[in-house]
Amino acid sequence: MKLHFQALQIQDRLNRRTFLNNTLLGLGGLALNGLSNLLPSLDPELPHLP
Fold this sequence. Notes:
By secondary structure, this protein is mainly alpha-helical. It contains 1 helix and no strands.
């Protein structure tokens, strides 16, 4: 029973870390997307990133 509880705790910790990583990745992606949209308007010489 104790082993099962430990496994649940580990799973919970992993889930939280994954959630944090996904959130950071999502925010980073949004920031990069925003930057790539802003850059061409700031500098028309730069090729627009897809």
